[in-house]
Known about the structure:
The structure holds two protein chains of two kinds. By secondary structure, chain A is an alpha/beta fold. Chain A is 36% helix and 28% strand. In chain A, helix 6 links the parallel strand 6 and strand 7. Chain B has one domain. Chain B has 13 helices and no strands. In chain B, helix 2 packs antiparallel against helix 3 and helix 3 packs antiparallel against helix 12. Chains A and B meet through helix 1, helix 2, strand 5 and helix 3 of A and helix 1 and helix 5 of B.
Amino acid sequence: MTDKSIVVSGVSKSYVRRQGFSFGLFNSKVDKFVAIDDISFVVKKGETVGLVGANGAGKSTLLKMICGIHRPTSGEVSVLGFEPARRKPAYLSKIGVVFGHKSSLWWDLAAKISFDTYRDVYTMDKCVYEKNREELFSALGLRAVLDRPVRNLSLGERVKCEIALSLMHSPQILLLDEPTLGLDVESKFQIRDYLNYRSAEHGTTLILTSHDSLDIQACCRRLVVLDRGRVGYDGPLSDFSRCGGISVYCIGLRNKDVLVYGRLQELQAVLSRADGCGYVRVDKDVVRLEVSSRARCFVEGYLSQKKIYYWDSVKKSLDDSFLNFIRNSREAGGEEDGDE
Amino acid sequence: MSAKGAMSLVKAGFLSVYCDRSMLVVDFFIATSVPFIIQLLIWSRAVFPENELQKTYALSEIYLYYAAALALNRLNNAYDLIARISGHVSHGLIECFQVKPVSYMLYNAALFFGESLLYYVPPFIVAVFVVFYKGEVVGAVGFLCLLLLSQVLCFLLGYAIAAFVYWTVKPDALLSLNVIMFSAASGALLPVAFWPGWLQPAMRYNPFRLAIGGPAEFLVKPSMSLALELLSLYVYWGAALLICVFVVSKVVRVKYAGAGG
């Protein structure tokens, strides 16, 4: 028996959009937009994968192809041996999907009724349902809200109900599209903790897209970065940072200060000689230095000595790594980063 | 989908209507009684004393026809169905239902029947009235049987109209089309016999008549020929609408691009 949960091979997805309005059936111009461009990857059973990318990179489209909402324009998607686009009930019973801010609960009815209804739709065993329900409701703090109409629940409570609903039938694969969008800190922690528990205890395969890097760091061991429909990075989360796990600090300088004194080249030369000073980035008005914690004191001392004003050093996060990755990728692709 | 799952969806549909009691009051008392009183006044005061069609329908039969037609009009109402599907499509919520192990059509069908359960009461009362005061058992039993077929056809009509929400910006045009067709072409305004001769074939054989006018006619004037005509039309239009819905669903699966996250 294969240990592959999801196999995506050579998948592309393009949308055809009509340009403008035309009365004619055949003479309107069409614009082809490639959302996903020849993507391939394999997700093993029990893996936790973070899917990140800029807005419009194709994360949701890819997720929708995996869960069967969209059919690929070319290539193949296989999930648990099923072709998702056929939307066989046997396949849909094995996956759980959450789209942030979208709800399948009955708005005017108590949340409990939605749970009971979907229990029967999924033809769940009563004992399994009771067990899962107790576990989910206590982990996500939902006991108090079950008798309230969904319309009276807060956003966080609704999202947690939706997550509980998607996990109630013990899916083998959980696909989450920005599930923590707009949630408070406590709700985010509850969700992250439970997803980790679920993945560790039940071996649930998890694919998570989120713009909150803490979600990805807390729940995922593997990272797939999408950039304009292509896979830019696919590997362990810990390897994504350029400095491979070393604490990295970003130091900001005003570009004007450096340029006035003609010190940029001098600064770069000094940094290139020092151990742990690997990266200097010049933006329009700001020079960002990325240095290791060991080199940090040296660099700050150098800047003070040369009377170059710098501001708070911040520890580099996954967001910084991601930002640099996207910028480098676009520079390599020859695209002008005009909006920075 | 299992029978238990379908029953649960029917129950959820029923509860979602039941919890909106103000709507129930409006539907049962105002939306049903006011049109009936208007029809009663028009036919008894303005039309009937001089009308040549007295031979076709007696005044009491006209009253009965309108009582049944109005009750059916409330029962077979696809407005909420179209509005719900439109909301799902325009807000991207349909994706939440497409990943559930039940087809979107069956999901909506179960909810539609659940939402209609309470509206079976007025036609049932009309049928009981006919049995007790007219002694007409065949018409009443046939009418009750036709109710189920009319519901299926109404759902298919509503679902077919709703399928076009993918091509519209707002659902208003489709909702208006639904209201107009169910009012004008269904026989809710006039029985088929009252329309001009050249228009009668269109009024007799269109699918909207099967949702409202057909069962009402059978209640008033039951006959084997009418029963066969109606059953044939249910089969024909049921199959035609199923094929239409199937084809449109296939097209929509390609057309629907959805939005991003």
